[in-house]
Every structure is written in structure tokens, then in C-alpha cells.
Write a structure and sequence with these properties.
Order of helices and strands: EEEEEEEEEEE
Helix content: under 10%
Strand content: over 45%
Number of helices: 0
Shape: globular
Distance between the termini: 40 Å
Structural class: mainly beta
Largest sheet: 7 strands, mixed
């Protein structure tokens, strides 16, 4: 059983930065395409960013392009989401997810493609 553990969330002012981390226990991150999603109360979970095994392919939601960067360090068994120029609308619970059987070279933006999920970490951006 793969367990994903996120860390790095918190409270930040508008325009600030945070870096989220995700590490799997019981497995190695290099085996998976990885993604970050977020969710606010009453809304569906939405795709934020995804990354392929080696990091050569990445994908971003339009709302975060140019501000967020997904990366991975397979040697450290960790995936990161660097979030810059944060806005109040980025406030959400952020989830790390792993895709064990990707269909295409580009990471999927669909929640149903991801097999494993973390427990989530809260990010709050104050205005």
C-alpha cells in the first residue's frame, strides 16, 4: 500500500510563496507520474500540475501557469510544488497523487487516472 505524505502548507500573504513536498512511504516516487490537485469546500477537486517519471514532461492548469512549478527529485524520493505570486483564490487543500499506469507522455489532469492520494495540506492565502 502506497501512502503519500504532503507537507509545506500554511498561511501566506498575497504575493508570497510556499513550497509543498510529497513523499511516498512504502514505495519509490520514480515509479509514478505525479500530480498535484486542490479542492475547496463545495467544489470538485481540480488539477493543478503533473510531472512524468523523469520530469521531462510537465503539465499545468491555466490558472497557475507561470506561477507554480512542479518538480521531482527521485534521489530524494520527493515531488515538489513551488508556488509563487500566490493569490487568495489559490486557497485550498492541496493533494499529492500518483499515477501508476500513465497512458500518455503528458501527465493526466483527470483525478480518475491517479491511484494513490495523500491526505492533503491546507494552503491559505490572505488578502
Amino acid at each position: 500500500q502506497v501512502q503519500l505524505v504532503e507537507s509545506g502548507g500554511g498561511l501566506v500573504e498575497t504575493g508570497g510563496s510556499l513550497r509543498l513536498s510529497c513523499a511516498p512511504s512504502g514505495s519509490t516516487v520514480s515509479r509514478y507520474y505525479m500530480g498535484w490537485f486542490r479542492q475547496t469546500p463545495g467544489k470538485e477537486r481540480e488539477f493543478v500540475a503533473g510531472i512524468s517519471w523523469s520530469g521531462g514532461n510537465t503539465r499545468y492548469a491555466d490558472s497557475v501557469k507561470g506561477r507554480f512549478t512542479i518538480s521531482r527529485d527521485n534521489a530524494k524520493n520527493t515531488v515538489y510544488l513551488q508556488m509563487n505570486s500566490l493569490k487568495p483564490e489559490d486557497t485550498a487543500v492541496y493533494y499529492c497523487a500518483a499515477d501508476s499506469d500513465p497512458l500518455y507522455s503528458n501527465p493526466s489532469s483527470l483525478t480518475k487516472r491517479y491511484d494513490y492520494w495523500g491526505q492533503g495540506t491546507q494552503v491559505t492565502v490572505s488578502s
